[in-house]
Design a protein that fits this description.
single chain, 376 residues, Fic-like fold, Arc Repressor Mutant, subunit A, 15 helices
């Protein structure tokens, strides 16, 4: 095959003797998991829970530790401490996974989907509406990350200063999370301004186009490996594996879920993750796919068994009981605090704790305060 300008080239011919075994295992594991989820009563809960675990695994692969509990609470806007930069980035991965999983199977790989995931989705609108619309859109995005200045500020002269500080903090968090702003606003200390993202994206897309006739698992492995080698975006290495999961979904291999390739790669020993040989790298990616699907199948069976055991406690309850709703909710979160349960079920935190005790959920934090429970 013709080498690309980025230097990435799919091995030609492909070393089928080396790839056949891992490829067959990956295809089989994905098929078994997807078939199990297709008829599972906890499919939606499984999908929601694995979004969190895969987001934490993505930061773990970059050498950053994000606790699952902190990510769940941060996603619910119920942090017990100030969120770190790593936690902000993990939430960006979480939200991106949800966007890809909630969209059409081929959306993430389309030009519009890629532009949106890169943070370029509103660029055309800004060009049409002018800078004023662009600034208002940016401020609207900033409001998601920071609190506005209090209405009872002692001196109105400080309002502009507070707004400027809030906007600066928001831009910093968005940059650390990998969400790009307009090209002219990039800080040269953070970004290499000579980095041609558009050209690199085109190179990566050419690789994806060349995999259309290959088996889905192998196409996903090549997609993820090409993203690592081409590096289209400077601060979002995790996006490549999410797009590889989207390839599996677009090719019809995973119709009911988005594969957790970060969690799968986490099981591979660090010294084996980045071999120099292209064929060996593809084998590692296929092993990660297999590991992710195998772990997902085990988690599904364990959670389904726990749901069956806990459902026995619902027998004979009144039709107005909140216990069934609580059981459904804890299946969608790795952990849930009293505040999260109270907000979801529209009850008081004290009533939420009583329901937790009645259902018999396990306490996950080991703390006396700020406790959380879940189906482990």
């Amino acid at each position: 095959m013709k080498p690309l300008s980025s230097g990435y080239q799919i091995p030609d011919p492909l070393p089928w003797a080396q790839l056949a075994g891992p490829l067959a295992a990956a295809e089989d594991a994905l098929a078994r998991l997807d078939e199990r989820l297709a008829k599972s009563p906890i499919r939606d809960g499984w999908v929601a829970r694995t979004h969190f675990t895969d987001a934490c695994a993505s930061l773990w692969l970059e050498g950053e530790l994000v606790h699952l509990e902190d990510l769940v609470l941060h996603d619910a806007s119920m942090d017990i401490r100030s969120p770190t930069h790593e936690l902000t980035r993990a939430r960006a991965v979480l939200r991106t996974r949800r966007r890809i999983a909630g969209a059409k199977p081929d959306w993430a790989l389309s030009p519009a989907g890629l532009d949106s995931l890169r943070g370029r989705g509103g660029e055309a609108n800004r060009k049409r509406n002018g800078s004023i619309a662009g600034e208002s859109s940016e401020l609207a995005d900033d409001e998601e990350f920071v609190d506005t200045a209090p209405d009872d500020a002692p001196d109105a002269l400080f309002a502009d200063a507070f707004a400027a500080i809030d906007a600066a903090v928001a831009r910093t968090e968005r940059s650390l999370a990998g969400e790009t702003l307009r090209q002219g606003e990039r800080d040269p200390l953070v970004y290499d301004l000579d980095w041609d993202e558009d050209a690199r994206i085109e190179d990566w897309q050419r690789v994806v186009d060349q995999t259309r006739e290959l088996p889905p698992a192998l196409a996903a492995a090549i997609t993820a490996d090409a993203w690592d080698r081409v590096e289209p975006l400077q601060h979002t290495p995790w996006l490549g594996r999410l797009l590889a999961s989207a390839v599996l979904r677009a090719r019809g291999k995973t119709r009911t879920h988005l594969a957790c390739l970060h969690a799968g790669l986490k099981t591979i020993p660090r010294e084996r993750r980045r071999p120099l040989d292209p064929a060996a790298r593809l084998v590692i990616q296929l092993e990660a796919i297999t590991a992710a699907a195998t772990a997902g199948l085990k988690d599904h069976d364990r959670w389904l068994n726990q749901r069956t055991l806990l459902a026995r406690k619902l027998v004979g309850r009144r039709t107005t009981s909140k216990l069934p709703a609580l059981l459904d909710y804890v299946l969608t979160r790795p952990i849930a605090s009293a505040g999260m349960i109270a907000a979801e079920l529209k009850i008081t935190p004290r009533a939420a704790q009583d329901l937790v005790a009645e259902l018999g959920l396990r306490e996950a934090t080991g703390r006396g305060r700020y406790r959380a429970w879940g189906i482990l």
